[in-house]
Design a protein that fits this description.
By secondary structure, this protein is of the alpha/beta class. The chain has a domain of about 170 residues: P-loop containing nucleotide triphosphate hydrolases (Rossmann fold, 3-Layer(aba) Sandwich), CATH 3.40.50. It contains 10 helices and 10 strands. Strands 6-7-8-3-9-10 form a 6-stranded mixed sheet, with helices on both faces. The protein has a 4-stranded antiparallel sheet with strand order 2-1-4-5, with helices on one face. Helix 7 links the parallel strand 7 and strand 8. The structure holds adenosine-5'-triphosphate and magnesium ion.
Length: about 240
């Protein structure tokens, strides 16, 4: 059971998010424990992005609470959440197209005062993402989709987060690039940063996830270890066996 794993790094406790009268998320609870890679799966409009936005303070929580690192952060500004150790790789990556790759990555460090450490962290990230070294002076808008994904992840890592939120990292990527992208996410997790990944591509996400939640029309319908979810007949019917990777 989850309760034996110590305190959750991120906890959503019966969170509901309404946009006007429309209920995008109904009473959902998630737990992410330190060092885990947790996936949130579901089809279009199931509330995946809304979940991420409620953690990052972009979508307002109607009821329920969000806890991070032992503190209730439900009403916090996004900036305060970033300072507390949350970072995001948003849907569509959102790099500044007319800035260089390196300028984009350094945006992740804007709140840091330790400029020497920033420099060495940048070098470490370049070791992790060698493709970005070759591209560091290139305009971000000219990167391929997979390279943009790396850039956005590198930018998130520059704030030294405890938890990275990722919204559909596989979107628009060819299968081989999806694989590479998830291998990098795995590396980030193995280096000690927890990751919460929202994905439609269940096969790719379950391959590396420790635990997974499944949303349908704003409600949590399934949760379990990645192996349990991959094996569940409900999940197989809904998502797998479509031949996506
Ligand atoms: N700001 C908003 N105002 C009104 N409705 C919204 C808003 N944002 C999202 N919604 C609605 O909430 C529902 C869930 O949206 P959400 O973006 O969380 O879905 P999703 O699971 O991320 O879907 P996708 O896989 O297409 O990205 C959708 O029906 C969407 O139209
Ligand atoms: Mg979405």
């Amino acid at each position: 059971m989850e309760s034996n794993r110590g305190e959750a790094l991120l906890q959503l406790d019966r969170v509901t998010v309404q946009y006007g009268r429309f209920v995008a998320l109904r009473d959902v609870s998630y737990n992410i424990f330190p060092g885990q890679m947790v996936s949130l799966l579901g089809g279009n409009a199931s509330g995946k992005s809304t979940s991420i936005k409620s953690v990052f303070g972009v979508a307002k929580v109607t009821s329920g609470d969000v806890y991070f690192n032992g503190e209730k952060i439900t009403g916090w500004t996004t900036e305060r959440r970033v300072r507390a150790g949350l970072a995001i790789v948003p849907e569509g990556r959102r790099l500044f197209r007319r800035m260089s790759v390196e300028e984009n990555i350094l945006i992740g460090a804007v709140n840091r005062k330790d400029s020497h450490a920033v420099k060495s962290d940048l070098d470490n990230l370049y070791d992790m993402f060698p493709r970005l070294v070759e591209r560091r002076h290139q305009l971000a808008g000219t990167l391929s989709g997979g390279e943009q994904q790396m850039g956005a992840l590198a930018r998130a890592m520059m704030s030294k987060p405890k938890l990275v939120l990722m919204d559909e990292p596989s979107m628009g990527l060819a299968p081989s690039m999806v694989k590479k992208s998830f291998a990098l996410i795995e590396q980030v997790r193995d280096a000690g940063t927890s990751v919460f990944v929202v994905e439609q591509n269940a096969n790719a996400a379950l391959r590396i996830a420790d635990y997974a939640y499944v949303l349908r029309a704003g409600e949590l319908v399934l949760e379990g270890t990645a192996a349990e979810i991959a094996e569940s007949s409900e999940m197989k019917e809904a998502y797998l066996g479509k031949g996506d990777s």
